[in-house]
Write a structure and sequence with these properties.
homotetramer, alpha/beta, Alpha-Beta Plaits, TIM Barrel, 9-stranded parallel beta sheet, 4-stranded antiparallel beta sheet, 15 strands, elongated
Chain lengths: 342, 342, 342, 342
């Protein structure tokens, strides 16, 4: 924390602030400048909320300096975390130069639907299947997912096709079930700061895919992951899925710069969801290519064989044959970057 | 829903879109213009996701027309809802020209702290007390609240001073307890789209204060309330607490225009939280005055007798004597608008 | 500037950064903490762009500390600037507790229109009239204003009714004419960072009303004013008119917290434009009341006697009788705050 | 335009709205639904501002349907526009599968600096050179560019190395000179809605590179281009350079989805500026690759041989050797997409 004093601040005011800091058990480092004095603070273990210093006479501003995250930071672990997802088709690696692809419908509708899609994407070599059994919907009148019945359908997809399964949990009850049936537990964007759910997921025995909240800053995104790690779950995959801005031509604004930003600060891998990130079928392929090119550690893509009959989000689902083309291009672009799609 | 066809769309393409609409059991109304044709759709009960029409040949755009909310709408109930909060000090009305004031600390720290604040704000005539027993915190290392012990302290405040109690629930477990101990259940901004929690709160026997999510549109805010009403709880108070924007001098950007906007579309009352809405003590008083002047049905204000010793959010808490001044000004401004502070 | 070193930074890296700083003629102040070292920098007169230090080995982040504005700052002038606008009806004061009201149409359409509006608002005691002769329009096919002919109409309004005139200049050519015909030169939101125009306005002999850009931070807003003062024009009035956010129910999001924020940092007065700030007639009155209550030094309101026949922005214009009501309420609310509407 | 009536609107109110529409010389198409009636309007040539209908009794909302842009639209010209930039090194094509690369410093500092950079990037095969002679700077105290002297240096770069020159004009005076000295006239983000400047650039005899404003919607961006085309200049290149959002880890949020969005609606080519789009050297390369992968028609990259001595924006400039690597990768990624870097 750095405390900036006004140019009219008296020496006494500077001393008072320093004394207050020392009284809190911290160390004050005054830095006298030509126009004004700043005071550095060291020794804070995070327990003291220093914003209140802003109210002291002569103080202009308090600027936080230390980053609040610890376990997710490269300071704690310098090398890339590689998350291994075990599937009947073989292990899938995420991170450290390994790119994981995930395909499947927005919502689990019927076993026929899931099998039809699984069958069509299997030949592309994709090993992970997604599909929602619990659907957070803006409207209480929209289809909310089949719940455990949906999870059973996904388990059948796993059994029949060998895919690893990624699906969302929305509360502690559904998390118990998702942990049982699926291979990766997804925490959705709307729940990124549902700390009760994060704590439960941090105690789960399966990897967690954590989606960035719609208006989450980078620090908040990393701190949400910190909740998971602080409870003991180190198998965490971050996921960018678009943020909310004034821009109105796409459902969200896909913030691809967050990929190198997360990779710089944290050892955790980060995937991209171009389907929610754009909300329009015509933009999914270009943004998927861009996500691979920016260095994402994987893609989570909504695929439906009959998008215009989908029960939800058909407008942003691509066709299985488009996904096949994407797999091909993803491999080629990854190749340029000396990375591997698995 | 209105489907806009491109200027190069053929008559056959227009016919195809109309046929698709009719095949869905809906009615198509083509509107031929000089440059292009638009097609109105009627008969949709909400079950059909029409966005997929956007993928048909010749279609430029699908524009939603109907609003998705029903029970919260003035269409469903034209006159203002007045929520009554029963307290030992007497009933507090919110809405329909009645303004409710709420004061108290961000977090319940100790009984001494709560009593000290309650004692200092009681003479202002305020009848509702706030304080967090469950604290959603960005960092897992920050104080997370005392839980049920905190609720017991609040119950003691209620007993000793007669205040009605408003406090936040963060998951189904804490909601059971909050419903038992408090008079109003608060759903925080981070949980505005925690639909599992909303459904539970919709079945509660106490009024609910629903805070707007940090990046919630007006429709999403109203739809979150729709979840509550659709489960049977009609005693809902909306609350604006600032949205997230590029603007960096305040913690959030308080969007006061949402007050008349909600009041125009919905019969539900709407309060304002100027403490989280600004995040700075020096802005709480001016924005509180503005909130009353814009027509808010109440204020939720963080008050602490020793803000620089607060365990959380001290930087945005005002002093009891500042709150007393605010009560006075609120009454005067409300008077200009022919409204009543109670 | 504060340079934050990584926790893995070596002592040598810290020394290297310090040496680089000293080589730039500045002074380095290392602050060793438990986890990491920060280095304060003093002596920078603004000429050196220190962001490049971020690229040095071991550096995590560079945090700017000093504010870049000088002449607009309360550091340069502690007491409020009161701008005097000379009109045939008498001087109008803006700032220092004095609130100025401005009414008039979005665009100058005809002399009849301006006279009709002027006649209807005159009895309210308002002394300043607004109306655009140069209209920045999103579309090249929209009405762009009458130019000098429009200014002549405004001059006739001044002559006949005694109002002071505020109108917008959009380039150096129009500014020459606006300076000649009007009493206050308006710089619009789209031109807030048109630095060529700002420099010209800074050399004008009339006061300038500077609107905040649609996505201007507080620092950028103040720096735009700094351009005006640095060229010698100290008679500057800031004006909030709404910023662009994700929120879609109003044309812009009126950021009323910027009023106390500007007043804290700067001695310059700040007005509010609730018409562009909301874009909807139904929100102009509530937000106008809120602007007065938050402490704005004036309001700029679009008034039209036949809004549904207005050539532009009729949808956000209020009626003369609504403006009369607003004047009354503004006086009453100002009275609560011990301020004066003039 | 579509007028949505409230569910409580009477038949008389619907008729009144229709009559008002017909009185404006337009045609009304009522669409009666189960819950409410909507009224389509055809025949509007853009002259009538229909927003005012929103104020009529019974009306809930007016929804614009037609897009306001004409000449930039694919409706006006279906095939891609390919802009040809003539340089001593040969023609550079932009659009229609041709990708143009541009390199150079943020600001023209000295002839030595420009020559040093030009010499280092020439071997990569790049044919276009950028560098600012007129610099829009947030602070009046920052380096504002060398003006015509800077343009002369750029002309010397052209002469000695054969590069085509792209540089910014900030007002009508500088545009006259830029048109004379350079090969492409750049309009910066801050001037995207400086309509006076756009009109002048629309009459220029050189191609124009139009940067997206920091908070410009897609429609506003296209309408700014419409100003250029409507004045007769059809050689327009759009350029995404990041938009302003809450996200604070990068200078701006690069909105790559705008590339396919512009390409879908308009025949004009669109480039990307990853330097301003990210503001950090470490993000320029990843985002450059992503921009090529998303389908951009070119890149505008800040390159400096001594970034830490740059007079401006050194923090976002990459080294010549990094640019060489980027050229290589850009060719490889373009190859995957069957596009050509020239």
């Amino acid at each position: 924390m750095l405390v900036v004093m006004g140019s009219a601040a008296t020496e006494q005011q500077v001393r008072d602030v320093c004394e207050r800091i020392e009284a809190l058990g911290l160390k004050a480092h005054p830095i006298p400048g030509a126009a004004r004095t700043a005071i550095g603070i060291t020794g804070n273990k995070g327990a003291v909320d220093l914003g209140v210093l802003e109210a002291l006479p002569g103080v202009i501003e308090c600027i936080p300096v230390s980053k609040p995250y610890k376990l997710v930071s490269r300071d704690a672990k310098a090398e890339d975390t590689v998350v291994t997802i075990t599937t009947p088709l073989g292990d899938v690696l995420v991170g450290g130069g390994n790119i994981a692809m995930v395909a499947g419908p927005c919502a689990v509708e019927t076993e026929e639907q899931c099998f039809a899609i699984a069958e069509r994407v299997a030949p592309t070599g994709v090993k992970l299947f997604r599909g929602g059994a619990y659907k957070p919907r803006t409207s209480p009148y929209s289809f909310q997912g089949h719940g455990e019945d949906g999870l059973k359908i996904l388990a059948n997809v796993r059994k029949k096709f060998g895919f690893g399964i990624i699906t969302e949990a929305v509360d502690n009850e559904s998390l118990d079930l998702v942990e049982e049936y699926a291979d990766v537990i997804q925490i959705g964007a709307r729940n990124m700061q549902n700390f009760s759910l994060l704590k439960r997921a941090g105690r789960a025995k399966k990897p967690v895919l954590l989606k960035r909240g719609m208006s989450a800053t980078l620090d908040e995104f990393l701190m949400a992951a910190e909740y998971l790690l602080s409870e003991g779950n180190y198998r965490v995959i971050m996921c960018e899925r678009g943020v909310r801005t004034f821009s109105d031509f796409s459902r969200n604004t896909l913030d691809l710069a967050v990929v190198p930003a997360v990779q710089r600060r944290s050892h955790l891998p980060i995937m991209v969801d171009p389907s929610h990130g754009t909300g329009k079928r015509s933009k999914v392929l270009p943004l998927s290519r861009a996500a691979i090119a920016v260095g994402a550690d994987g893609l989570l893509v909504e695929v439906h064989h009959e998008p215009d009959k989908a029960w939800s989000d058909g407008v942003q689902s691509i066709l299985p044959e488009e996904f096949a083309e994407l797999m091909l291009e993803a491999r080629q672009i990854a190749n340029v970057l000396h990375r591997v799609v698995n």
